Amino acid sequence: MDLTKIPKLKHSISSNFFLLSGPCAIEGETMALQIAERIVKITEDLKIPYIFKGSFKKANRSRVDSFTGIGDEKALKILRKVSETFDVPTVTDIHEVSDAEKAAEYVEVLQIPAFLVRQTDLVVAAAKTGRVVNLKKGQFMSPESMKHAVRKVTDSGNEQAIITDRGTMFGYQDMVVDFRGIPTMKQYAPVVLDVTHSLQQPNQASGVTGGRPELISTMARAGIAAGVDGLFMETHFDPANAKSDGANMLHLDLLEKLLTQLTALRTTINSL
Fold it and tell me: Coiled coil: which residue ranges (predicted)?
């Protein structure tokens, strides 16, 4: 995987970590542009390679009345507008084989959700678009097993794969990250740590996923210390009223301070 091959990715030859960040879901054009503008400014100042993240639809929901999106084409066009407005690459997750080609027309990176990363047809369809494929490690999978997911991408003629760890299911309602898996998975592809989904508390009795956002900085610092290549974090200017995953998102006002600290930590790690 060569970061310099991702279109529009700035600072790709810097020694900093790269960042996938944005809201969980695209709720509208104004909110997406507002969040993107803030993150682009911060990452430019800190020379962090940045990819804007936003789901064009949410297929994996706890309840049938949960928010799923504003319409596929509408959300994808907003992702394209973010990319064109701020000259940054974008990433969105796909859930069905038919999503791959559709989403690839609008974004630079296709993300395979953790629950679907063993779905061969989906992974192969994403790979065959030629886009970068971000493979989220299943909550039920070992780090070693992710080499097979990466191989599905490379065997499809696409060398552009990333692995993102988002924790492993611990009991029924909690997630943990085993940092021993980071160096293991780095043998197969660049590794990203999803510091917000790793703090999810799924399967709550209410049917609404919980989270521990107060531990986001702890998780992120641990990831940098463990040698991850990139970080994934969802952020919103009003997490309490976000339409998806608000319980584990970072408030946008806290992002600059955290990324400044993480950049300093990365510099220290690189000097050792």
Answer: none
Q: Are 133 and 126 in contact (CB under 8 A)?
A: yes
Q: Where are the alpha helices (DSSP H) in 87-228?
A: 97-104, 120-128, 146-154, 181-185, 216-226
| Residue 206, pLDDT score | 58
Distance CA 147, CA 128 (A): 18
The domain containing residue 70 runs over which residues?
A: 3-271
CB 251 within 8 A of CB 240: no
Please give the pLDDT value at position 120: 98
**Integer CA distances (angstroms), 75 to 44, 108, 138, 178, 266, in order:** 25, 15, 26, 34, 34
Q: Are 232 and 193 in contact (CB under 8 A)?
A: yes
End-to-end CA distance of the chain: 24
Taking the chain (272 residues) in runs of 10, the rounded mean pLDDT of each run is 89 94 97 98 98 91 73 97 98 97 98 97 98 97 97 98 94 88 97 93 59 90 98 96 86 98 97 92
Structure tokens at 33: 């542009």
Which pLDDT belongs to residue 59? 78
Q: What pLDDT is attached to residue 213? A: 83
| Residue 176 CA: distances (Å) to CA of 62, 210, 212 | 20, 14, 12
Q: How far is CA 124 from CA 57, 158, 161, 234, in A?
A: 20, 9, 12, 26
In CATH, what number is assigned to the domain containing residue 149?
3.20.20.70
